[in-house]
Write a structure and sequence with these properties.
2 helices; 64% helix; elongated
Length: 45
């Protein structure tokens, strides 16, 4: 019974920690212009 209550908490916490680690590898966009339209994304590909 105890494990069934603990598993969702550990899973949710582990997913949050894993997401934060992966976020460290995302490209930095500070002070860089972001595309406004789909055409801008396709042009800069």
């Amino acid at each position: 019974m105890r494990y069934s209550l603990l598993c969702p908490v550990l899973f949710t916490g582990g997913a949050a920690v894993l997401a934060s680690v992966f976020a460290c590898f995302l490209p930095e966009t500070l002070n860089k212009p972001l595309p406004d339209t789909i055409e801008d994304v396709e042009e800069n590909g």
